[in-house]
Design goal:
mainly alpha, 0% strand, elongated
Protein backbone atom coordinates (compact mmCIF):
# COMPACT_ATOMS: atom_id res chain seq x y z
CA UNK A 1 0.00 0.00 0.00
CA UNK A 2 1.56 3.26 1.14
CA UNK A 3 5.00 1.64 1.24
CA UNK A 4 5.31 2.49 -2.46
CA UNK A 5 4.38 6.15 -2.00
CA UNK A 6 7.58 7.67 -3.39
CA UNK A 7 8.45 4.78 -5.66
CA UNK A 8 5.51 4.65 -8.04
CA UNK A 9 3.75 6.50 -10.81
CA UNK A 10 0.89 8.99 -10.77
CA UNK A 11 -1.47 6.02 -10.85
CA UNK A 12 -0.01 4.56 -7.66
CA UNK A 13 -0.17 8.03 -6.13
CA UNK A 14 -3.92 8.20 -6.84
CA UNK A 15 -4.38 4.70 -5.44
CA UNK A 16 -2.60 5.65 -2.24
CA UNK A 17 -4.83 8.70 -1.87
CA UNK A 18 -7.94 6.51 -2.16
CA UNK A 19 -6.57 4.14 0.46
CA UNK A 20 -5.96 7.03 2.83
CA UNK A 21 -9.55 8.21 2.26
CA UNK A 22 -10.66 4.76 3.44
CA UNK A 23 -8.33 5.11 6.44
CA UNK A 24 -10.17 8.30 7.46
CA UNK A 25 -13.67 7.01 6.63
CA UNK A 26 -13.12 4.18 9.11
CA UNK A 27 -12.15 6.62 11.82
CA UNK A 28 -14.47 8.14 14.41
CA UNK A 29 -15.24 11.84 13.81
CA UNK A 30 -13.93 12.66 17.28
CA UNK A 31 -10.55 11.18 16.37
CA UNK A 32 -10.29 13.62 13.50
CA UNK A 33 -11.53 16.74 15.28
CA UNK A 34 -9.44 16.10 18.40
CA UNK A 35 -6.29 15.33 16.42
CA UNK A 36 -5.94 11.66 17.39
CA UNK A 37 -5.68 10.79 13.68
CA UNK A 38 -2.14 12.13 13.62
CA UNK A 39 -0.49 9.55 15.86
CA UNK A 40 -2.22 6.76 13.89
CA UNK A 41 -1.05 8.28 10.63
CA UNK A 42 2.47 8.66 12.00
CA UNK A 43 2.52 4.94 12.74
CA UNK A 44 1.16 4.23 9.25
CA UNK A 45 3.75 6.52 7.68
CA UNK A 46 6.88 5.22 9.35
CA UNK A 47 6.42 1.93 11.22
CA UNK A 48 7.20 -0.31 8.24
CA UNK A 49 8.83 2.37 6.13
CA UNK A 50 11.82 2.68 8.46
CA UNK A 51 12.54 -1.04 8.04
CA UNK A 52 12.60 -0.75 4.27
CA UNK A 53 14.15 2.65 3.69
CA UNK A 54 17.78 2.53 4.77
CA UNK A 55 21.06 3.91 3.46
CA UNK A 56 21.51 0.66 1.54
CA UNK A 57 18.08 1.10 -0.06
CA UNK A 58 19.03 4.50 -1.47
CA UNK A 59 22.41 3.23 -2.67
CA UNK A 60 20.59 0.53 -4.62
CA UNK A 61 17.90 2.87 -5.98
CA UNK A 62 20.32 5.66 -6.93
CA UNK A 63 23.68 3.96 -7.61
CA UNK A 64 26.70 6.23 -7.88
CA UNK A 65 24.94 9.44 -6.77
CA UNK A 66 26.11 11.54 -3.77
CA UNK A 67 23.62 12.42 -0.98
CA UNK A 68 22.96 15.97 -2.26
CA UNK A 69 21.85 14.66 -5.66
CA UNK A 70 19.55 11.99 -4.20
CA UNK A 71 18.01 14.49 -1.77
CA UNK A 72 17.17 16.86 -4.63
CA UNK A 73 15.56 14.01 -6.57
CA UNK A 74 13.46 12.96 -3.55
CA UNK A 75 12.31 16.55 -2.98
CA UNK A 76 11.32 16.91 -6.65
CA UNK A 77 9.35 13.66 -6.54
CA UNK A 78 7.59 14.60 -3.30
CA UNK A 79 6.64 18.03 -4.70
CA UNK A 80 5.18 16.40 -7.80
CA UNK A 81 3.02 13.97 -5.83
CA UNK A 82 1.93 16.69 -3.37
CA UNK A 83 0.75 18.86 -6.26
CA UNK A 84 -1.16 15.92 -7.78
CA UNK A 85 -2.94 15.36 -4.46
CA UNK A 86 -3.81 19.07 -4.15
CA UNK A 87 -5.33 19.12 -7.62
CA UNK A 88 -7.31 15.89 -7.23
CA UNK A 89 -8.89 16.87 -3.91
CA UNK A 90 -9.51 20.60 -4.36
CA UNK A 91 -12.72 20.22 -6.38
CA UNK A 92 -14.22 17.76 -3.92
CA UNK A 93 -14.11 20.04 -0.92
CA UNK A 94 -14.57 23.45 -2.57
CA UNK A 95 -18.07 24.35 -1.39
CA UNK A 96 -18.90 21.78 1.24
CA UNK A 97 -16.04 22.72 3.58
CA UNK A 98 -17.53 26.12 4.31
CA UNK A 99 -20.66 24.42 5.65
CA UNK A 100 -18.62 22.43 8.17
CA UNK A 101 -17.08 25.53 9.72
CA UNK A 102 -18.93 26.96 12.68
CA UNK A 103 -19.76 30.62 13.17
CA UNK A 104 -16.58 31.10 15.21
CA UNK A 105 -14.37 29.42 12.65
CA UNK A 106 -14.13 25.97 14.24
CA UNK A 107 -15.11 22.72 12.61
CA UNK A 108 -18.72 21.78 13.39
CA UNK A 109 -19.07 18.40 15.09
CA UNK A 110 -21.36 16.69 12.63
CA UNK A 111 -21.02 13.42 10.77
CA UNK A 112 -18.06 13.86 8.43
CA UNK A 113 -19.38 14.58 4.92
CA UNK A 114 -17.69 13.30 1.81
CA UNK A 115 -15.97 16.64 1.23
CA UNK A 116 -14.40 16.66 4.68
CA UNK A 117 -13.28 13.08 4.15
CA UNK A 118 -11.59 14.22 0.94
CA UNK A 119 -10.01 17.19 2.69
CA UNK A 120 -8.53 15.12 5.51
CA UNK A 121 -7.43 12.51 2.98
CA UNK A 122 -5.41 15.20 1.21
CA UNK A 123 -4.10 16.32 4.60
CA UNK A 124 -3.26 12.72 5.45
CA UNK A 125 -1.60 12.09 2.10
CA UNK A 126 0.56 15.22 2.18
CA UNK A 127 1.37 14.63 5.86
CA UNK A 128 2.49 11.10 4.99
CA UNK A 129 4.50 12.43 2.07
CA UNK A 130 6.16 15.17 4.10
CA UNK A 131 6.97 12.96 7.09
CA UNK A 132 8.66 10.46 4.80
CA UNK A 133 10.51 13.16 2.89
CA UNK A 134 12.00 14.52 6.12
CA UNK A 135 12.81 10.97 7.23
CA UNK A 136 14.44 10.18 3.85
CA UNK A 137 16.67 13.23 4.03
CA UNK A 138 17.80 12.30 7.54
CA UNK A 139 18.73 8.82 6.30
CA UNK A 140 20.60 10.18 3.29
CA UNK A 141 22.74 12.44 5.45
CA UNK A 142 23.45 9.67 7.95
CA UNK A 143 21.00 10.57 10.72
CA UNK A 144 17.88 8.36 10.76
CA UNK A 145 15.09 9.18 13.19
CA UNK A 146 15.37 7.60 16.64
CA UNK A 147 11.83 6.82 17.83
CA UNK A 148 13.03 6.61 21.44
CA UNK A 149 14.24 10.21 21.40
CA UNK A 150 11.46 12.80 21.90
CA UNK A 151 13.79 15.48 20.52
CA UNK A 152 14.17 13.52 17.27
CA UNK A 153 10.38 13.22 17.07
CA UNK A 154 9.97 16.96 17.64
CA UNK A 155 12.60 17.66 14.99
CA UNK A 156 10.80 15.45 12.48
CA UNK A 157 7.46 17.20 13.06
CA UNK A 158 9.14 20.61 13.00
CA UNK A 159 10.76 19.79 9.65
CA UNK A 160 7.70 18.10 8.14
CA UNK A 161 5.08 20.68 9.15
CA UNK A 162 6.92 23.83 10.17
CA UNK A 163 8.03 25.60 13.33
CA UNK A 164 4.49 26.20 14.65
CA UNK A 165 3.68 22.49 14.62
CA UNK A 166 6.97 21.74 16.35
CA UNK A 167 6.21 24.41 18.95
CA UNK A 168 2.76 22.91 19.52
CA UNK A 169 4.31 19.53 20.24
CA UNK A 170 7.02 21.01 22.45
CA UNK A 171 4.50 23.02 24.47
CA UNK A 172 2.35 19.95 25.00
CA UNK A 173 5.38 17.87 26.00
CA UNK A 174 6.38 20.46 28.59
CA UNK A 175 2.95 20.28 30.22
CA UNK A 176 3.15 16.52 30.75
CA UNK A 177 4.81 14.55 33.54
CA UNK A 178 8.63 14.61 33.52
CA UNK A 179 9.26 10.87 33.66
CA UNK A 180 9.74 9.10 30.32
CA UNK A 181 7.99 5.74 30.30
CA UNK A 182 8.85 3.32 27.49
CA UNK A 183 5.73 1.85 25.95
CA UNK A 184 4.72 -0.41 23.14
CA UNK A 185 1.28 0.55 21.87
CA UNK A 186 -0.32 -1.12 18.89
CA UNK A 187 -1.08 1.32 16.05
CA UNK A 188 1.03 4.08 17.60
CA UNK A 189 4.73 4.81 17.79
CA UNK A 190 6.75 1.71 18.55
CA UNK A 191 9.27 2.41 21.31
CA UNK A 192 8.37 6.09 21.73
CA UNK A 193 7.91 7.85 25.04
CA UNK A 194 4.43 8.10 26.53
CA UNK A 195 4.79 11.88 26.67
CA UNK A 196 5.42 12.14 22.95
CA UNK A 197 2.40 9.96 22.21
CA UNK A 198 0.13 12.07 24.40
CA UNK A 199 1.33 15.22 22.70
CA UNK A 200 0.76 14.08 19.11
CA UNK A 201 -2.97 14.96 18.96
CA UNK A 202 -1.96 18.60 19.50
CA UNK A 203 -0.15 18.45 16.17
CA UNK A 204 -3.14 16.74 14.54
CA UNK A 205 -5.50 19.51 15.68
CA UNK A 206 -3.08 22.19 14.49
CA UNK A 207 -2.74 20.63 11.04
CA UNK A 208 -6.48 20.08 10.63
CA UNK A 209 -7.33 23.68 11.58
CA UNK A 210 -4.83 24.99 9.05
CA UNK A 211 -6.15 22.66 6.37
CA UNK A 212 -9.78 23.70 6.91
CA UNK A 213 -8.88 27.37 6.71
CA UNK A 214 -6.91 26.87 3.48
CA UNK A 215 -9.63 24.66 2.01
CA UNK A 216 -12.47 27.09 2.62
CA UNK A 217 -11.73 29.59 -0.12
CA UNK A 218 -14.36 29.22 -2.85
CA UNK A 219 -13.42 29.76 -6.47
CA UNK A 220 -9.66 29.25 -6.31
CA UNK A 221 -9.40 25.82 -4.76
CA UNK A 222 -7.64 23.93 -7.55
CA UNK A 223 -4.74 26.36 -8.05
CA UNK A 224 -4.59 26.95 -4.29
CA UNK A 225 -4.53 23.24 -3.49
CA UNK A 226 -1.88 22.48 -6.08
CA UNK A 227 0.20 25.54 -5.21
CA UNK A 228 0.07 25.17 -1.44
CA UNK A 229 0.90 21.48 -1.48
CA UNK A 230 3.75 22.05 -3.91
CA UNK A 231 5.13 25.07 -2.03
CA UNK A 232 4.83 23.52 1.44
CA UNK A 233 6.54 20.31 0.34
CA UNK A 234 9.30 22.33 -1.32
CA UNK A 235 9.90 24.32 1.89
CA UNK A 236 9.94 21.14 3.96
CA UNK A 237 12.56 19.65 1.67
CA UNK A 238 14.73 22.76 1.94
CA UNK A 239 14.49 22.86 5.75
CA UNK A 240 15.30 19.18 6.12
CA UNK A 241 18.17 19.38 3.64
CA UNK A 242 19.72 22.34 5.48
CA UNK A 243 19.43 20.69 8.89
CA UNK A 244 20.63 17.21 8.02
CA UNK A 245 23.27 18.34 5.55
CA UNK A 246 24.79 20.56 8.24
CA UNK A 247 24.93 17.63 10.63
CA UNK A 248 26.52 15.39 7.99
CA UNK A 249 29.11 18.11 7.28
CA UNK A 250 29.92 18.27 11.01
CA UNK A 251 30.38 14.50 11.17
CA UNK A 252 32.61 14.62 8.10
CA UNK A 253 34.76 17.44 9.54
CA UNK A 254 35.30 15.56 12.81
CA UNK A 255 35.93 12.25 11.06
CA UNK A 256 38.60 13.77 8.80
CA UNK A 257 40.22 15.90 11.51
CA UNK A 258 43.91 15.02 12.24
CA UNK A 259 43.31 14.22 15.88
CA UNK A 260 46.49 12.17 16.12
CA UNK A 261 48.41 15.48 16.01
CA UNK A 262 46.90 16.54 19.35
CA UNK A 263 48.88 15.43 22.40
CA UNK A 264 46.85 17.26 25.06
CA UNK A 265 43.28 16.09 24.35
CA UNK A 266 41.90 17.74 27.49
CA UNK A 267 43.30 21.15 26.47
CA UNK A 268 41.87 20.56 23.00
CA UNK A 269 38.34 19.95 24.36
CA UNK A 270 38.59 22.87 26.80
CA UNK A 271 39.48 25.28 24.00
CA UNK A 272 36.66 24.05 21.78
CA UNK A 273 34.25 24.55 24.68
CA UNK A 274 35.53 28.09 25.35
CA UNK A 275 35.06 28.90 21.66
CA UNK A 276 31.53 27.50 21.56
CA UNK A 277 30.46 29.09 24.84
CA UNK A 278 32.13 32.46 24.28
CA UNK A 279 28.71 33.92 23.45
CA UNK A 280 27.15 32.22 26.53
CA UNK A 281 24.93 29.87 24.55
CA UNK A 282 25.22 26.50 22.86
CA UNK A 283 23.35 25.79 19.63
CA UNK A 284 22.47 22.26 18.54
CA UNK A 285 25.08 22.20 15.72
CA UNK A 286 27.72 23.27 18.25
CA UNK A 287 26.60 20.51 20.61
CA UNK A 288 26.75 17.97 17.75
CA UNK A 289 30.28 19.12 16.95
CA UNK A 290 31.52 18.80 20.52
CA UNK A 291 29.79 15.46 21.03
CA UNK A 292 31.28 14.09 17.80
CA UNK A 293 34.77 14.97 19.02
CA UNK A 294 34.26 13.47 22.49
CA UNK A 295 32.98 10.29 20.86
CA UNK A 296 35.99 10.08 18.56
CA UNK A 297 38.42 10.71 21.42
CA UNK A 298 36.74 7.94 23.40
CA UNK A 299 37.13 5.60 20.44
CA UNK A 300 40.89 6.11 20.33
CA UNK A 301 41.15 5.33 24.04
CA UNK A 302 41.60 8.72 25.75
CA UNK A 303 38.92 7.97 28.36
CA UNK A 304 40.52 9.97 31.25
CA UNK A 305 40.50 13.13 29.11
CA UNK A 306 36.78 12.71 28.44
CA UNK A 307 35.98 11.96 32.08
CA UNK A 308 37.85 15.04 33.29
CA UNK A 309 36.20 17.25 30.69
CA UNK A 310 32.66 15.94 31.29
CA UNK A 311 32.89 16.56 35.06
CA UNK A 312 34.21 20.10 34.78
CA UNK A 313 31.87 23.02 35.51
CA UNK A 314 34.12 26.07 35.67
CA UNK A 315 36.73 26.69 32.99
CA UNK A 316 39.57 29.10 33.77
CA UNK A 317 40.06 30.83 30.47
CA UNK A 318 43.43 32.39 31.32
CA UNK A 319 44.85 29.16 32.65
CA UNK A 320 43.66 27.23 29.60
CA UNK A 321 45.04 29.77 27.12
CA UNK A 322 48.39 29.83 28.94
CA UNK A 323 48.75 26.08 28.32
CA UNK A 324 49.05 26.77 24.59
CA UNK A 325 52.64 27.86 25.24
CA UNK A 326 53.48 24.24 26.07
CA UNK A 327 52.31 23.00 22.66
CA UNK A 328 54.39 22.76 19.51
CA UNK A 329 53.60 25.14 16.65
CA UNK A 330 52.11 22.21 14.71
CA UNK A 331 49.83 21.28 17.60
CA UNK A 332 48.75 24.90 18.12
CA UNK A 333 47.85 25.18 14.44
CA UNK A 334 45.86 21.95 14.54
CA UNK A 335 43.96 23.02 17.67
CA UNK A 336 43.24 26.39 16.08
CA UNK A 337 41.79 24.68 13.03
CA UNK A 338 39.23 22.94 15.28
CA UNK A 339 38.41 26.22 17.04
CA UNK A 340 37.68 27.87 13.69
CA UNK A 341 35.30 25.05 12.77
CA UNK A 342 33.61 25.27 16.19
CA UNK A 343 32.61 28.92 15.72
CA UNK A 344 31.13 28.44 12.23
CA UNK A 345 29.23 25.13 12.42
CA UNK A 346 25.97 26.98 13.17
CA UNK A 347 26.57 30.11 11.07
CA UNK A 348 29.07 32.90 10.63
CA UNK A 349 30.82 33.66 13.95
CA UNK A 350 29.33 36.16 16.38
CA UNK A 351 31.36 39.14 17.59
CA UNK A 352 32.21 37.39 20.87
CA UNK A 353 33.24 34.20 19.06
CA UNK A 354 35.41 36.22 16.70
CA UNK A 355 36.99 38.01 19.67
CA UNK A 356 37.90 34.66 21.23
CA UNK A 357 39.40 33.45 17.94
CA UNK A 358 41.59 36.58 17.81
CA UNK A 359 42.70 36.00 21.39
CA UNK A 360 43.75 32.44 20.57
CA UNK A 361 45.66 33.72 17.52
CA UNK A 362 47.54 36.14 19.77
CA UNK A 363 48.33 33.54 22.47
CA UNK A 364 49.26 30.81 20.00
CA UNK A 365 51.32 33.19 17.86
CA UNK A 366 49.94 31.88 14.58
CA UNK A 367 48.79 33.45 11.31
CA UNK A 368 45.08 33.96 10.68
CA UNK A 369 42.96 35.16 7.75
CA UNK A 370 39.52 36.26 9.00
CA UNK A 371 38.04 36.02 5.51
CA UNK A 372 38.75 32.32 5.63
CA UNK A 373 36.19 31.92 8.44
CA UNK A 374 33.34 33.00 6.18
CA UNK A 375 34.47 30.56 3.50
CA UNK A 376 34.64 27.82 6.13
CA UNK A 377 31.11 28.68 7.32
CA UNK A 378 29.77 28.04 3.81
CA UNK A 379 30.70 24.36 4.14
CA UNK A 380 28.12 24.00 6.93
CA UNK A 381 25.38 26.21 5.49
Amino acid sequence: MVDQLLDGTEESSKKTLEEIKTFFRNMMPEDIYKGAWFEKLLYLALSNYQKKVTAEYFQKEYPGLPPDAIVDLRIALAKKFAAISGGMTSLAYSGAIVATIGKRGGASKVIIPAAITTLVADLGYTSLLQLRLAYDIGILYGHPLDYEDPQDLTDLIDLAFGVKAGEALNKSLQQLAPEFIRVFIKKTLTGSSLQALKALPVVGKYLLQNKIIKGAIPGINIPLGVGLNYYNTSQIGKRAKTKYRRRAAIDEAVRDFPLEGIQNKCLFLNLIWLAIYSDKKVTRPEAWFLRAFTTRIQEIGSIPDIENFSKQVNFDKEEILNLLANCSIEERQTIFKAICIAVVVDDKPSDTELAFVREVVHRADIAFDENGLNELANKFG
